[in-house]
Amino acid sequence: MTVLAIPEALQPYAGRIVDVDTHEMIPSQLWRQEFGPATDEFAAIFQLLAPDDPTGANFPDYKIDDAPITNETIWRMKGPAAPGAVDPARRIEIMDRTGVSRQMMFPSAVAVFGSMLFNFPPEYGFMPQFKGDRKAYGRALFEANNNWAIRKAKVSDRIRPVPVVYGDTVEDLVANTRHLLDSGIRAILIMSAVLPGGRSPAHTDLDPFWRLITERDATATLHIGSEGGFLKTDAWGDAPAFEGYKTTGEVNLSPWNLSIIHLPTQNFLATMVVGGVFDRHPSLRFGVIEVGSFWIGPLASQLDMWCAHNQLFSKTKVVPLSMKPSEFIRRNVRVTAFDFELVDEYIDRYGLEDVYCYASDFPHMEGGKDPMGFFAKRLARLGPEVMEKFFVKNGEWLMPG
Question: CA spacing 20 to 30 A to 29: which of 58, 229, 276, 315?
Fold first, then answer.
């Protein structure tokens, strides 16, 4: 295979690279066609946005996914206009040109904004013009997205759609997840600000859920955009210093929001680790996607410290975890980095070279125009073993063949 669109340093891994974060990016003009009439009310609201809105949801002139696939368009075209943004079948050529063996494909507008509608109360300011039952409509949007994901999972096992799982009870959560897995889905998205099935992620009542994922050799993920409502109010960011910053389809880029963006995910993962989920389910594959990787090393260190003193803090004898929290993270968890992060320095400081994964965020603009190049330059000094882990092996573990 001739690979033209990747740095020379990655040529040895061509055809094996794993991209654990890409997206569909279907404009609202096609939502009824792709997702069904449940999206009509949502589409009407988004079609009031300016055509150049960063969400990419309003594209009045969009016709068909036919942008030419070239080395230039693969990395520099963003949004719905990018080749393969709407039609997953066109991604196979893109993956071949970039040496990618397989990729996860997360949702964009319908499920991400459905999650925000589901999680945000009206006072947060998200879609105040929607006057109906926000949670009920959020569920309808999840269902529309998930049915689309089931259909697209049949395009190729190299492209794995990641639908949202939800349920007010553990039984509902397990049933919804089983339906997705029975339908060919191999990775699921859990909302990081919502108690899954109404329970703590660490509660043994949730073990049937984690067991189902493990037994099916599927992957559970958290992803940016599903953390809405973690804080009781977002007025913490209501200050002149935080005005005038861009907002993309998934994230507000103000300094305040970026400083706390990882907290819902960190809370969810820490609860699982110290709550023994990975002890009880040692084969559970867990990915944390697009919230940065700057926090995972400090978290691992902190959890090791606190767990080392459990016996001193407890009123009764504590049954210790079978390993250190950092060891569970190293074994069971994979985390993606933004291309501007100092991943090599994180590895110098904390180790965890088995945890960090390559992600392009294609075709979202947050992925940048040369993610492979930026990561390769930073990691080259750590040698080929670390490079191979970052671009190949860590992602392979998260997305088994």
Answer: 229
